[in-house]
Amino acid sequence: MSSTRVALVTGANKGLGLAITRDLCRRFPGDVVLTARDEARGRAAVQQLQAEGLSPRFHQLDITDLHSIRAVRDFLRQEYGGLDVLVNNAGIAFQISDSMPFLIKAEMTMKTNFFGTRDICTELLPLMKPQGRVVNVTSGWGFKALESCSPELQQKLRSETITEEELVGLMNKFVEDTKNGVQRKEGWPDDNIYGMTKIGITALSRIQARKLSEQRGGDKILLNACCPGWVRTDMGGPKAPKSPEEGIETPVYLALLPSDAEGPHGQFVHEKKVAKWQFMPQFYPKI
């Protein structure tokens, strides 16, 4: 087992994930594991970084597949005895023009973005070493979705005492209500699936941080959600104002918080600052 420190980035074969991996390869004092659902694309991304003089490792990872997640968990445990930095970047978003039925979009996006990220955390958070850093990449679109929810749902999702089980129940209910065509009647936004999955991740981050403080307070593990802003990637499109290099500033800042840092912890961070739970339209396209 190596005593080398290790950082792992999910969804890292392109876009924001690849840019985060590149920067960590330059700045993180240890190994960086680039993961991707598609092995060929992941290995191509590794070769691209190797051509730049960097040395990431590769491991296949599909965050919607528990066997795949557990294979990564076992690899980290066997090779490194744990994990120092986890960046949960993997996620999907359907284009508005996509003709796939709304209910299928809702189910697939929630399964990947919220439940996939939750499964990763369930399996890998127990591996986090003291002074570990966890970064859940979310989005300000989550607050747009939150503000479109009924007051009752907003109160539940904003609650600082909501449990993981309650949150999972709400995310499942959103999908079920969407399937049944009653999402608006039940108080959900009518057209912001991606945002709902991301407010789920932001709320989950608060819960996870609270658990870490209760169960492993002395280990000083810091876990946060962050918004990179609107970034020029396949997902963000060519009109986005930020380059990937600008978009990764906050995720990398949180991943590399110094070992003696007291915080932030359990926060939503934007532009390297703790931000309020509200939509910031100046950072996003008009919709």
UniProtKB/TrEMBL annotation:
PANTHER family: CARBONYL REDUCTASE 1-RELATED, CARBONYL REDUCTASE [NADPH] 1. The keyword Oxidoreductase applies. Monomer. CDD domains: carb_red_PTCR-like_SDR_c (cd05324). It catalyses: a secondary alcohol + NADP(+) = a ketone + NADPH + H(+). It is an enzyme of class 1 (oxidoreductase). Belongs to the short-chain dehydrogenases/reductases (SDR) family. Keywords: Cytoplasm, Lipid metabolism, NADP, Oxidoreductase, Phosphoprotein. Pfam families: adh_short. One of its GO terms (molecular function) is 15-hydroxyprostaglandin dehydrogenase (NADP+) activity. This is Carbonyl reductase (NADPH). Its EC number is 1.1.1.184. One of its GO terms (cellular component) is cytoplasm. GO terms for biological process: lipid metabolic process. Its main location: cytoplasm. It is found in: Cytoplasm. The gene is LOC110150794. The keyword Methyltransferase does not apply.
